[in-house]
Each structure stands twice: as structure tokens, then as C-alpha cells.
Amino acid sequence: MPKLVTAQDGDTLCGIAMDNGFLNCDPLRAEAANAPFLNRPLAAGDVVTVPDIVVKKSDHTTSQIHKFLKKNSPPVSIRLVHGSPDKPYLQDDTLTALNISNYPTDKGGLEGNHAFPTGFGFNPDGHADEDTFKIEIVDPSAGGTLFANMEALRPFYRPDHTVDHHDTFAGVSDADDRKTVAVHCKQVSSGHVAFRSAYLRLVADQIDNISQQTLLITDAVDAGLPEIEILDQKVRATYVVKACNAAGDAKCKVTTDVPLAAGRAFDLAVRVMRATPTGVVETNPGGPGDDGIVKLADIRKRVQTFVRRCWAQSHIKPNLVTLQTMDLPSDMITVADTTGLPARGTQDAAAVPGQIGFTLSVQRFGGGSNSVHNIVPFSVPAGSTPQQTAALIQQSVQGIPGVTATVSPNPPEVGDPDGSCDVLFREASGGRITITNLTPLASQDADQKVAAIGLTMVVNRRNADDNYHVGHPEQRNLVKSLDTPGDVVIDVTVIDAFPSATLMGFTVPELKNLDPDRQPVSGVKNSIIMARRASTAGDEIPFALAHEIGHVLTDEGRHALSNHELMFHITPVNSVSTDDSKRIVEHLPAANNWQITVQHHDANRTVGGQNTRLNATFHVNNIASPHLLH
Ligand SMILES: [Zn+2]
């Protein structure tokens, strides 16, 4: 008598047929009652009719009954595993989340200096990369080598950008790049029901997509879908049952969909500077004010491609909260830069107090009229700290309509008695302030000098151990003026270049591990200045922005030792090799891999570097920057 079997999710006609002693689903497909199931996967609750096995005495037909099969043989199935050195195959854990590999694609071993194994079975050099996985097929009816396919699944978003569902990339122009077909899965031993692939890796760019052992999980910016996140995708592995005789898409198959570990996001504010002021703050790529040193769409593309790909290794995605083109900030005045000295109360070679006077000019846009304000020189009392003198400068401009002056102290440079202090100027309507006719040095205080700092599209920075945490006045004016308040957003300012034309970016992180006097102030910390060359739409210097973000997220101004790592001190000019410096290590290597800042608690609070072991991904996510991630 025919038997009725209620299907579970994942069942196939072939699987039910085998479980009942048939070689494949042919006899089930011949049953009229099974007609609804012939061209779709079985769903839970489908009632499948299983015919009786008719054993005939002819050699031909007995060969159609799988003599090795028992009723309780494992069902045909597919799953992903990392594998283990010692467990029986079917007892290995099933992976419930996958990650982008942090290794050079063709490298394995704990330190990434062995070849990546291409064979089957356990291999410590493949096992060392926690992100490797294998496809495991169970098919009690098969032998030899089976084939599986794997492909990326596309996230579809709700209006609030949460993921609604996943489906294939079908119809997207580069959909075929997001599949790896005919992955070989070899029977783990003769007569065993399990078949496994070699070690497999998820990679985030085409350069790394080098073989049947890699699957590309990347952004879809070039395909016109910039909203698609790498970490929101899933991986689908499919096995088309070898013994199934059904035609084409009707063939019985088993699949498994496994998500990537979704991770967290950091917030990024990008402000592109324009050389000639217009007063316009443009937020629309392609808008009339999108006339900065790079186009807004270009720097955004950098974030959505290379930054996404690099940081996906560490389960982190960029979240662009601000994207603007704007004028360079107004001029500022700095007091006691590099010295932190108090006022002596006298001028050089004169017994009278030092003087500060200047002309403050406001250029207004959009119909407002320009204005010029002469600040009559005033005396600086003996003993005034830089901050007290800055407050006098602030008072001197009170009453100028629309003009705000902000006193912004700096920490001391190493060996200085006090910090210098900046006075930042802002005009309410978006006008631009310039400071001219500042009292000449000879008439200023003998010890405590003041200077007017104007910005151009080429910006100086300071990078020595004793002044990195303070920065150059130009650098301070730029990043303090454009800071997103709260110190939880990474601020990126795009200029033309640095005086050193080979410098592509410059970052000041929080430096929380240092003595409080050696930490940058709010407004300077978590700031990145990027050169135009590394901010364009093209592929030139592709990893520089991701590298600078790495200084913030690792909270470390120093560099990794390996030239495979994103945080190596030289960033490649293009993306051509699996050996490019773009990896973020995610294990504890047996050798030192990182140079990290150390604080010596001597009188000078000397900062130095030492080599240390650093699991950069763990460090970013759990120690250096959890407060920047959400
Ligand atoms: Zn660097």
C-alpha cells in the first residue's frame, strides 16, 4: 500500500524516496498525487505519496533499488561547518554565521605565512583562519565527488533601512560574480554518507576572488545599488541531488542560507572643502554647491566601496551621517603656540606691556554686506595664561554683530608649562572671517606670542611624539571648527594636499591609553584630514581612507608591522594583489605584529613605540572603540 509522508522544511522528493528505499525520486514523481510538488521545493506539511517498492526478479530492476540504503539513513542535507581536528564529521558544529576572511586569500597558518590548503580534509593551515568554512553534503545514495554551488543573497530593505528579506542577486548586472559554482565536495571516506569541500573563504573584493575556494560578498555600488551592505548579506549553499533524474530546475535540491555576522556601525561625517568661499553648505551630490576639491559622490563612493570592504573583515560598517561641501573655516588666533608660556608683561626690548590688536573682516554671502572691525590694541597683563589672554581676545570682539569667538585651550606640548590656546571665530549667517593687521611680534608680549591662522587647501600638521596630541594651528583650526560635537562621530575633512605631497591622510585618535596631558582635546580627537588624491571616485590609493579610520578605531597613531595589514605605514597606490595592505588581523599570532604606543611615566611623559601582539579586530570592537560603534 502506498504510504503518506508529511514533509518537513528542507525535505526533497529524492530524500523521501531514498529514505524509503528508492534510488531517486522517479517513482514518487510518477505518482499522480505528487503532481503539485514536481516543480517546487517541498514545504512543511506537504503530504507526499510514497509508492510500494516492487522487487522484480530481473537483474535490470533490482539494480534500481539501492541495496545499501536503510530506512533510517540520514536524509539528504547540506550545511556549513568549520571542521575540527578530532570530532567525527557529523558531530562538528553547524555554522550559524559567517565572516569575511582577514587573511591574504592564498595564505593560511596562524601567522598567515603558509600556503592556503587546496586539498580536502583537516589541515591546520586552513583551520587557523577562524573565518574559513566547508560545505558538507550528506547523501547516503552517492559516492565519489559531489558538486555544490554557493552564492551571495541580496538584502532587501524596508524604508528605515532594516532588512526585510533576502533573495538572490538575479537581475543585478554583476550577479554572476557573486556565485561560485561546482564546488567540489569529496566523500570523507569510502562508504561514508558525508561529503566535504576544501576550506572556503568569503572575500570582499574581486582581487581576492581567486578560485573555487572563494565567494565574493561585496558592495553593489557599481551595479547601481549603493544601499546594499556587505554585512547584511547571506550565503546560500545548494546541492542538487546527484541521483535526481528530474529536468532542470525541477531537480531535487537542498539549500542552506547562513547570514554574515551583522556586526556594528560607526558614524562618519565627511566635509569637502572648497577653495573659493561662497557661503554655501551643499548636502546634495551634484547640487549647485557641489564644487569642492572632490565631488560628494566621489568621496561617498570611497566610503561605500573600499571602506566598507576593508572594515567588513572586522564586522563593522560605515554609517555616513554627514556629507557636505563647504568653505574653509574662518581665520583663528592662537596664543603661545608651541610654548604655552604665560605673559611676561613686557615687550621685547621695552618696559611696556605687550599689545594685541587686529582687524577683523567679515565677508558675507547671500545679500549680507561685508564689514570691517578694527580691534584697538589692548595690553596683556603680566602672568596671563594663554587661556586668560585668549579670553581677552574673545572680549575684544564682543558686540560685533553675528560674530562669535570661542576660547579653545590645548593640552601642553611635552616640556611646556601650560597648553597654548586658540580663539575660533564664526559668523552666524555663514560668513567668512579674516584676521589681518595683527600687532607685530616686536610689540607683542616678549614671551607669549599670538598669531593669526588662515587656512588654504594645503594644511600643515604636527606629528612628533611631543606635539602629535596638540597638532599644528592650521590643523586645529580646520578640525576644531568642523567638529561634530560629542566625540562619537569620526570627522573627515577633505583638502587638496599636505605640504608633503605623498601624505594621503592624517588622523588624531583619542589616545586613551596615554597620560591625560598627552590626550588630544575634544574637537581634535577622532579627526581625519584626507588629501584629494585619496578621496576621488577612482581606485587611486584605495585603502587610505579605511587606514585613517583604522587609526581612530584602533585608537593608535602607530602602525602594524606586516605589509599585508591595513594599518601598515604605507598604503598601496592601487588595488592589484591579494598581498595588498588591507587586512585587519583577527587572531593572536605567535609573533609580534603591531607597533603600539606606550606611555613611560617619567618626568617628560615620554611616548614611545613598542612591538606588541594585537588582535586588531577584537581590540577595535571590545577595547578601543566600543563607544564609537552602534
Ligand atoms: Zn597611518
Distance between the termini: 60 Å
Number of strands: 28
Q: Indicate the CATH topology of the largest domain.
A: Collagenase (Catalytic Domain)
CATH architecture of the largest domain: 3-Layer(aba) Sandwich
Instruction: Estimate the mean pLDDT confidence.
Output: 93
Give a summary of the structure in a few sentences:
With 630 residues, the protein is an alpha+beta fold. It has helices at residues 13-19, 26-29, 59-62, 124-127, 296-312, 386-396, 473-481, 544-554, 616-624, and strands at residues 3-6, 47-50, 77-81, 107-108, 114-115, 134-138, 145-157, 163-168, 179-187, 194-197, 201-203, 214-216, 234-240, 253-259, 264-274, 316-327, 332-335, 355-363, 371-379, 403-409, 421-427, 432-436, 450-453, 489-495, 505-508, 527-531, 594-599, 607-612. It is built from nine helices and 28 strands.
Task: Give a description of the structure.
It is built from 9 helices and 28 strands. It is of the alpha+beta class and 630 residues long. The chain has 4 domains: 60 residues, Membrane-bound Lytic Murein Transglycosylase D, Chain A (Roll), CATH 3.10.350; 183 residues, no CATH class; 232 residues, Collagenase (Catalytic Domain); 125 residues. The strands form 8 sheets. Strands 3, 6, 7, 8, 9, 10, 13 and 14 form an 8-stranded antiparallel β-sheet that branches. The radius of gyration is 32 Å and the shape is elongated. Zinc ion (ZN) binds next to helix 8.
